[in-house]
Write a structure and sequence with these properties.
Elements: H1 8-15, H2 18-27, E1 32-33, H3 34-38, H4 45-57, E2 61-66, E3 69-74, H5 76-90, H6 94-108, H7 113-119
Antiparallel strand pairs: 1-3, 2-3
Length: 130
Amino acid sequence: MADPGPDLDLVFAALADPTRRAILTALLDGERTVGELAAPHEMSLAAVSKHLAVLARAGLVGQMRSGRITVCRLEADGLRAAGLWMQGVGGFAPEDYDALEALIEAALGPDEDDDESEVGPAEPERPVGL
């Protein structure tokens, strides 16, 4: 059976926190230790480790332990899945909107305002007596 991929609920929940987004941004430059990831943040190593656990559970970060040092790396598949989902939700080409408009017009009939909009805007009325 094929791998279903990352759980998008976990991915988006992980991305909702600004500290976790900052950690992911730092990992874009390559692998980092937990200490290196914690340095710019005013929080304990334990707190950063909890953020990393959320990111790892979401499939966004991989961790490798070597003795007392934990090295973290970005796992692109989780981000890719979220990006593909967002493209699918919001990625409509102009032709898609044209087709939707034609379908709506066929179902409801032509819009009566269409004729007026083609003529142009009406001139403002002048007060009587001027």
